[in-house]
């Protein structure tokens, strides 16, 4: 992947206990390193505490340096654009890696292949496929977030999943070694990926089929219109809150349990689509998580079905001993 010319020298390192533990390894990182980064400003819910140490590597080699420097007992959390993510109010202890521009390239290749970095927006992958007359990837315009997140949860929409179009995925293991994985290596199933959580996806190659760009564009417009009409995408929300249980639609179970419009604090079950939670403006992460758990309880009581969270919940509560203090408020939605 192309290096960011603004990040060719070693970055300044915060003087914190964790940064000192990482020592010379952290000093070799070329991307931005910050302590106490404000994650609420970059997640779609706009809630949550800070990251103890945020690292934004510039490319795969830089990320490999981060992983090799990380002690085994230091937790690692990887985030993209924060679309399907609920960061708890006490923040994220350990290292948070945020993949940005150096991982966002998308290239069309001969044979209806698309290669995309892990930070590439799924909707942008669909657009590049359209521009090159590659059909079969239109569903990605209905998947919020990035390719890395889509790989991690085998994301899908409108009848297709990542596993249906995936050729290979590339990931770094905890030692920073690069692996090329085939779908059969990844134990992919509905909203599940069996690749170890401490492996970091960096890219994927997808395969479509020849198609008419105008027909593909029409399908993209149709999907976007359907999302606009049925989902609260203009609010502070994440993706679908719960995975669909076998034989059921999560939203129907939530609706049947009487949860449409249910509120706890500043969190609300969407009136428009009951599988979405909304921050009405004053919600905390604790409000949103408590609301989700209350919904799960009511669905269990009314239908006997156990809902499984699809939203990824990370970090610790505000009263946790490892809660992180905010010291850097400069993080924004822009990539470094």
What does the model show?
It is an enzyme of class 1 (oxidoreductase). Residues 46-211 form the FAD-binding PCMH-type domain. The active site is at residues 191, 240, 310. It is globular and about 55 Å long. A hairpin with a 3-residue loop joins strand 6 (106-109) and strand 7. The protein folds into 3 domains: 8-98, 2-Layer Sandwich (Uridine Diphospho-n-acetylenolpyruvylglucosamine Reductase, domain 2), CATH 3.30.43; 104-216, Uridine Diphospho-n-acetylenolpyruvylglucosamine Reductase, domain 3 (2-Layer Sandwich), CATH 3.30.465; 237-307, Uridine Diphospho-n-acetylenolpyruvylglucosamine Reductase, domain 1. The chain has 8 helices and 21 strands. The chain has helices at residues 17-27, 60-69, 122-131, 147-153, 162-165, 213-230, 250-256, 285-303, and strands at residues 32-37, 51-56, 76-79, 85-87, 92-98, 106-109, 113-117, 134-135, 156-157, 160-161, 166-172, 178-181, 200-207, 209-210, 236-237, 242-243, 263-264, 267-269, 277-279, 308-309, 312-314. The model is unreliable at 1-10 and 332-336 (pLDDT under 50). With 336 residues, it is of the alpha+beta class. Helix 1 (17-27) packs across helix 2 (60-69). The longest helix has 19 residues, at 285-303. The chain is 26% helix and 24% strand. It has a 5-stranded antiparallel beta sheet with strand order 6-7-13-11-12. The chain has a 4-stranded mixed beta sheet with strand order 1-2-5-3, with no helix packed on it. A 4-stranded antiparallel beta sheet has the order 15-19-18-17.
